[in-house]
Write a structure and sequence with these properties.
alpha+beta; OB fold (Dihydrolipoamide Acetyltransferase, E2P); five-stranded mixed beta barrel
Length: 123
């Protein structure tokens, strides 16, 4: 291959990659307000039935963050397959939350944990 064809190939490839990068969809924005459900795994930091809120500690790269979920009456909560309530979630329990991103924030659809509820006093 000549230097010219190598240079042309490099320019074409760079153009293609730049086009793909610039046209990549914003998946988070694309799912906001739609029927798309995402899942997040984390550790319960706090749960408040009165406020209808669950605070979850989850990892992002090498950092931790607290994510707040709205939990309404339609949310299904399961402990090792058995139905439960937000009051029964104990601090430190590992859960998987299926949620929807809305303009108001994250809304939990289901909350599941494989561990049975904790002993009283361990919240």
């Amino acid at each position: 291959m000549s230097r010219f064809s190598i240079a042309v190939t490099g320019v074409v490839m760079a153009g293609l990659l730049a086009g793909v990068w610039w046209s990549a969809p914003d998946l988070a924005a694309a799912t906001r307000g739609t029927d798309a459900v995402a899942k997040m795994c984390g550790t319960v930091a706090a749960s408040d039935r009165a406020a209808g809120e669950l605070r979850l500690i989850t990892g992002v790269g090498h950092a931790l963050r607290v994510v707040v979920f709205r939990v309404d009456r339609e949310c299904t909560i399961r402990f090792a397959g058995a139905e439960g309530s937000l009051d029964e979630l104990a601090r430190g329990q590992v859960v998987v939350v299926a949620y929807r991103a809305t303009p108001e924030g994250y809304t939990a659809e289901t909350i599941e944990t494989s561990r049975p509820e904790s002993e009283p006093g361990q919240r």
